[in-house]
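Need Phosphoenolpyruvate-protein phosphotransferase's 3D structure for a figure. Predict it.
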Amino acid sequence: MTERALQGLGVSAGIRTGKAFVYAPVRLTDVEKKKTQDVDTEVERLREAKSACQAELQVLIEKAQRTLGEEKAVILKGQISFLQDPTFYPPMEKLIVSEQWTAESAIHQVVTQVASLFESMKNEYMRERAADVRDVGNRMFAQLCERKGTQLSDIGEPVILVADDLTPSDTVQLDKNLVLGFVTRIGGKTSHTAILANSLGIAAILGLGDGIDQIRHGDELLIDGSTGNCILSPSAPTKESYHALMQRDEAEKAELLAYVDRDAVTKDGFRVELAANIGTVEESASLISQGAEAVGLYRTEFLFMGQSQMPDEETQYKAYRQVAEAMKGRPVVIRTLDIGGDKELPYLDLPKEMNPFLGYRAIRLCLDRKELLITQLRAILRAGVHGDVKIMFPMISGMEEWRQAKEIYDQTREQLSQEGIPYADSVELGIMIEIPSAALLASRFAKEVDFFSIGTNDLVQYTVAVDRMNEKVAYLYDYFHPAVIRLIKTVIDASKAVGKWSGMCGSMAGDPIAAPLLLGLGLHEWSMAASSLSKVKKVITDLNRSDCAALVERILEMDTAAEVREALLAFKP
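Structure prediction for Phosphoenolpyruvate-protein phosphotransferase:
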């Protein structure tokens, strides 16, 4: 068979080759609407299917808790909540009784309606919930069918899994020893499948579209989860080429192991702190072994997402405490709830906005709904007894917001004190610099806050007025833009002037190419994906800070991002 190249969305890195296993379970799309003469029997069949579905999901939840942790298990708990939702299961029984439909037909009708409702929503995260609805419906439907289709349990050798879609409960069942990677027809970066794929460390390509129809059971595949390349029936030269890439990657990984336990110190003695960004409690368990000196950004919104209701103080306290204890006294910067924009919580009933990234989000939301912030601050302060916890407020645009947040923090401390509840008495408070107005006021903020953390992802977006998710203008999104560099310098200089520290938790911190620039600017703390720690540490230890400072002087005279990038690539210390 001739080699064919297919393109999807790479969501979990890794290069894998193997035989395709086409996963084809029975789906609700196979249903034909039928009537019944025996309503009572159909109602009983439906109830039994619901009960069996709940039992099956409970088993998967317990497995997820053991292998992935509580925060991933809530994805499946959310599916059980659908079975208990008055707008989901009761209408199925009603259709059987009033319309005399079969149980299969009733499931199909309701699931289609509810999933379509989610798919019509503007927010991508909410649209992805349609997959959860269909997953529950398919599971109920499978309980009623004799024909089961191709099941995951049929996998008996290492394969690359190919499917129209992989539901969260499918992904939880994957055996990493047998599933080398997977490819799906649909899916996005915010889907549960993508989140779970990264947690499992399985190479994954989503959104292959109609190209997936070219793949047959048993075909040889080569997938590159970092680029989204899927090659069907790869030729010998192609396999050889990718084999060389795999060998290079393995050699690089082996070399980087030597840097895990080393300090990030330049040749001339300038030391920086390398930290990791995390979104879940489970990620903190292995950070120290990967070389992280701290958690520079704990994105707490992931604790709130995928749930049917707001996590209470005790739930939050346990999560924050677990991270603090996992870091064994090393710093943990916890960002307060950063919701809004592209991240929604259905139970908050947030208003629809024309420009959500410029609207009611993050600290703006929390200052308006103070009970959210107070509950979170109480949980963080209590967890601070068990480690070195710091608090960071996101989306600060002016002094008024910072002072309001600080006032609520002070009131929360007093509240805990009056109640006799143990809490961390001395917690550093910082702000995230992601809006140009905050960067320009850095010298004023530096007199009152304990630290800054520069969020380059949004800072670039707001500085150059570019939606980083818009492919039409993505070429303009560049953290080497001279205006962005000047804002970063302003922030770092302001903190140094009063003896305080600045960190960076945006993607720029994890880019080895940017290392000489950030060293030259004097950035104290760099926070990034854990997988980037050793790469960046290696670059830092090979540089002289004095050389980098001289490079920065030249860069500050440049006019374009292209000039800056070229200078960094050409830099030879």
